[in-house]
Amino acid sequence: MNLIVVGTSYRTAGVELLERLSIAPAYRADVLRELVAGPHVAEVVALSTCNRVEFYAAVPAFHAGLHQIAGALAEVAGVETADLADSLYVHHGEAAVAHTFAVAAGLDSMVVGEQQILGQLRDAYALAAETETAGALLHELFQQALRVGKRAHAETGIDQAPRSMVTAALAQAAALDASGSLAGRRAVVVGAGAMGSLAVSGLTRAGIGTLTVVNRSDDRADRLASAYAVTSAPMQALPALVAEADIVISATTSMAYVVTPELLGTARPILVDLAVPRDVHPDVKALGLTVIDVEHLAGSAAEHGHAAPVVAEAQAIVDAEVANFLAWQRGSQVAPTVAALRARAEDLVTAELARLARRSDLTDEQRGEVAHSMRRIVQRLLHEPTVRVRQLAAGPGGEAYPQLLRELFDLEVPGQSRVDQVADIATPERAA
Hints:
By secondary structure, the chain is an alpha/beta fold. The protein has helices spanning 15-21, 25-37, 62-77, 94-105, 116-130, 136-156, 161-176, 194-205, 218-227, 238-244, 261-264, 294-303, 307-357, 364-393, 400-409, 418-424, and strands at residues 2-9, 43-48, 52-59, 89-92, 186-190, 210-214, 231-233, 247-250, 270-273, 291-293. Helix 4 packs across helix 6 (136-156) and helix 13 (307-357) runs parallel beside helix 15 (400-409).
């Protein structure tokens, strides 16, 4: 069985395409069921966020599985499969495991180290488990991925990267102010999620004069504002608040632009865009405003020394866990072959005992002793080779050993036909 990841993200697609590819929560279960109902996808988990849409799948044959998943993505977007060619990426085997673990650790996020993706992965896995589209391989992959993500955050402090980026954003915003400081200024924070909370915290520490939190959910805005003793307001109040603001920080998960030229009117506040995809419309820059956004803040945080050592430490955890997962996978792949070998040996013993049973010169006791001896001999003969092949299969290049056993003993293993074996050793990189 081949493990593949097929998807697109902020790295390969623009906001417009990501919006079209986004799978609404109400339809995700249906998409999963349709994929596993097809002939070429055995297991599948779908992850759809504001900046990535990915399918994690176990497929019997690489090329056929890739074609079916790409077709599903094209159908979601309402385009031809060929139209997605330049925006899709494909990871196979070890690369698929490495990508999954990197996503869970926050290493593949635009805001390196953000924790929201871990919860999104957990939700995607839970839906696949509920719809019974995740089998043994994806269950193991996602359970390990969630563990790896938690470990990376707990052991490296990589989740401090968003805090570093907010700090860098506020420092740049202060530099743009004539006074060189945000103290006493009027601020609006749009969004009450993790980044919005960090922004509110940073602004209060900077001595901001007045601060209003705006969010689509009034309850969340009220809770955040109450925690920092600032003001909250409904979304309808945003135009009036922006008109009076010195700095506007937007950090929502909206798929539509939040800060537009129409919203600003004649207002000219300092704008900070902490959202992915962007909250500030590109045309705002034509008004002569400088927009501090995530894309160049990521580089700023790295330049200030946060990213390099911490990311390297998190990457080392991911690399070690990928090796562990591959060892487990190779070991699990040899188990059906070993079982088939033992079943073949038992069939031979049973056939020989049936032949001896036709002899009338053996008593029942003698037949029992012969059967016991034959089975002990077979077990002893197979013990060392099967233990050794499990060890070898868990090492580098271990996938070759189950194939050798199948060839040597002409074994038929469920789910591992000759066609599947050829597909497993094909070169999927050419298709990617």
